[in-house]
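Morning run. Coffee first, then this:
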Amino acid sequence: MPALPLDEAGKYVAAAYLVFLTLLIVYVAIMGMKVARIEREIGELLDLEEGKEAGRSPAVKPSQDGDQSPQTAGQDGPSEVTHSGGPGP
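And here it is:
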């Protein structure tokens, strides 16, 4: 004889699946935010490197979170980063 009758156990199984699905969605959202942050930081590093190659000295502008982040001088606003290969649109 099972610990719980099958007609009562169904709601507990459904609740367990909902909890698992919720945790999975939260995990994917956290990983997505981390990937977006890393891509943004790589873009900033690429912009900084392009500025060094062009012979310009980098300027320091305050970022969104108040920290000082290096940006190339003469650029106002976000820049578009192009990738030479790899997956993506």
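The mean pLDDT is 77. Good start to the day.
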